[in-house]
Amino acid sequence: LPEQWIVSRLQKAEQAVQTAFATYRLDLAAQAIYEFIWNEYCDWYVELTKPVLNDENVSEERKAEVRRVLLSVMEASLRLAHPLMPYLTEEIWQTLAPKLNIVGETIMLAQYPVADQALINDQAEADMQWLQGLIGAVRNIRGEMGLGNARLLPVLLQNTTDAEKAQIARIEPLFKALAKVESITFLADAEQPPLSSSSVVGHVSVFVPMKGLIDPKAELGRLQKDLDKVQKQHDQIATKLGNEGFVAKAPAAVVEGEKVKLAEFADQLAKIKANMEQIAAL
Prior knowledge:
This protein is of the alpha+beta class. The protein is built from nine helices and four strands, in the order αααααβαβββααα. It folds into three domains: 119 residues, Orthogonal Bundle (Isoleucyl-tRNA Synthetase, Domain 1), CATH 1.10.730.10; 87 residues, hypothetical protein PF0899 fold (2-Layer Sandwich); 65 residues, Orthogonal Bundle (Helix Hairpins), CATH 1.10.287.380. 66% of the residues lie in helices and 9% in strands. It starts with a helix and ends with a helix.
């Protein structure tokens, strides 16, 4: 999947650059190149290769294939960026080209990249979009719960269609490796999940159960601080609205705004108290 995806995305980047040059939009050409190299090649593909290249159980043939794609996509990216970054791309290309057995005196004489429609893979791009979304959701939950990257997390998924389950099955090994996930469990649509930290990917709900992952005593202490802070803010506005002089003299819009704030703080208090009750039961 990662190799099919990055090669497909390279074709899309080449198409975007070709269109930008044809319409004399050098800014859009530069933007397309930047977004591909930084947001897709570096942010995702390089990271996806690490579990493969660092795994002793992966065959040397598979590792060689990954290295070849790593280098060939970078080499194509250098040719793509050369008109806008001539000196830097030339310098790197001189080092990179021999590793791919490319013979040439200079990148200036190499063929400019042209998109190959046969290499565009919509299925790989759709699967990869799922992988990116799920990894992002779990990483956000991990950060919110204050969990280190070393801990493997159980993940519960809800509101998934059969087609989405098939997609998730295809990306499961990569998802577990990159998001440090221990297991994936699908919940029925009406099933009540345990007390969890949650996120959403599209219409799919992602849950990480708190039991066994957090210290209830420490979490209750943190929530108590939040409760005290919100309670103080709530009481200050309640006191202000209880002052007949303020209500009589302040503009109606100001009074209404304070009432809205009071309702929001009351809602926050109710949610914090509900969380504390659930965590106390862990």
